[in-house]
Amino acid sequence: MVLIFFSFKHPLEETAHFWVNCEVNPLCEGHILIIPKKHFSCVADYPQAVYKEFVKLYSKFSNFLAKEYNSISTFEHGKVSQTVFHSHTHLIPYQGDLTTIIPEGKNRITKLNSLTDLKRIFEGAGGYLFFSIGDNLWTVDLSLAEPAFFRHRFAAALGKPERGDWRKMRGNRKIMSEVEQEISGLKKRWSRYHL
């Protein structure tokens, strides 16, 4: 299956079930996507074998970002607020307070014990908004959902709100020039790291 809504211009790794790529419209240097080859709506939709492979990649690339960029955050729209209707998990170097991402307050989030909690939540609610900062994992109250929910919020938290809308940023030559440098920097760090 060819996924026309993702660019595979900057691959980092390929496995039996996944592609791991540099995000071509990154929020910052170090922005990585983990994308399944087969169509699934979200991580909680993965069959067990695919999920196990995902967890290994998630851990591997989270460790890479933590070591190389000194921070790790992730997000997935879990069939809610997606602008691309195919599972893909974002990993970015970001360290900050969760209320910067969810200023509506801590009463609008639920702490998770592990990624496996997503399956239970998905089965009950039909979707979720998942994010992490460091080792802390949460889901967000679905009543807050809007398209590209986390992308806009992390872009603002990183001081780059103009990158919240990936479609608009593509038309900005200055941003796209920065993007090429950021992707190059990420690829260099990855090639040194995994050798």
TrEMBL record:
Motif Histidine triad motif, residue numbers: 86-90
PROSITE patterns the record matches: HIT_2
Gene Ontology biological-process annotations: nucleotide metabolic process
Entry coiled-coil feature ranges: none
Superkingdom of the source species: Bacteria
Gene Ontology MF terms: catalytic activity
Active site positions: H88 (tele-amp-histidine intermediate)
Ranges of residues in domain HIT: 1-101
The protein's name in its UniProt record: HIT domain-containing protein
